[in-house]
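user: Please supply your own:

assistant:
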Amino acid sequence: MQIGSVGIDLGKTSFHVVALGDNGKVLLKKKFSQK
């Protein structure tokens, strides 16, 4: 399975990364926060 698209949601103190496969299913969902 390969990554079809990547989405990034930018916030003030954190951001989220979501990777979707070719079929539209979520492959990766990760939250990063600033310390």
